[in-house]
Amino acid sequence: MIATKMIEVFSHEISVPVGGMTLVAFLMVCDILSGVFKAIAKKRGINSTIGTNGLIRKAGVLLALLVFIVMDSLIELNFVTIIPSEILSVFKLEGAHIGLSHVMLGFFGLFELVSLFENLGEVGVPLPQFIMKSIERLKITLEGEE
C-alpha cells in the first residue's frame, strides 16, 4: 500500500514555473554580488561566516521552493478560483493557474529584491524615495524593526 502511494506520488507530473525560478535565482545572484560589493565598499572585508550563512539561507529558500513546487503539483491548488469571475474576465485570467509555488516565488522574489535594494542603498547608490519608504515600511511590517 505504501509502495503504491510512493509510486503514485513520484509518477505524478510536476510542473515547474521556470520563469519564476529563473527570476528568483537571478535576484539571489544579484543580492550576493551586492552584498560582496557592500562589504568591500564599507571596508569590512569579506566575512566567510556571513557569506556561508547567506548561502545556506539561499539554499534553504531554493529547497523550500522545490518542496512548494512538488506540493503544488500534488495538491493542484489554484488561487484563481478564489477571484470573482467578473475580475477574471477584466484581466483575461479565465484559464490561468496560480498555485502555491507561484505565490511563494513572488514572496521570495520580493524578499530578494528588498535585500538587493538595501545593499545598494547602504553602499550609496541613489534610489528613488518611494523605494526607500516602501522598504522601510516592509521591514517594519515583517521584522518589527523601527
Concise account of the structure shown:
The chain is an all-alpha fold. The protein has helices at residues 2-11, 18-41, 48-75, 85-90, 100-123, 129-143.
Write a concise keyword list for the protein shown above.
146 residues, mainly alpha, 6 helices, 73% helix
Describe how the helices and strands are arranged.
Elements: H1 2-11, H2 18-41, H3 48-75, H4 85-90, H5 100-123, H6 129-143
Helix pairs in contact: 2-3, 2-5, 3-5
Structure write-up:
It contains 6 helices and no strands. The protein is an all-alpha fold and 146 residues long. The chain is globular, with a radius of gyration of 19 Å.
Bulk shape: globular
Percentage of β-strand residues: under 5%
| Most strands sheet | none
Low-confidence parts lasting 5 or more residues at pLDDT below 50? none
What's the count of strands? Answer: 0
How much is the average pLDDT?
83
Order of helices and strands: HHHHHH
Please give the count of helices. 6
Portion of residues in helices?
over 70%
| End-to-end Cα distance | 54 Å
Please identify the structural class as seen in this structure: mainly alpha
Gyration radius (Cα, Å) is 19 Å
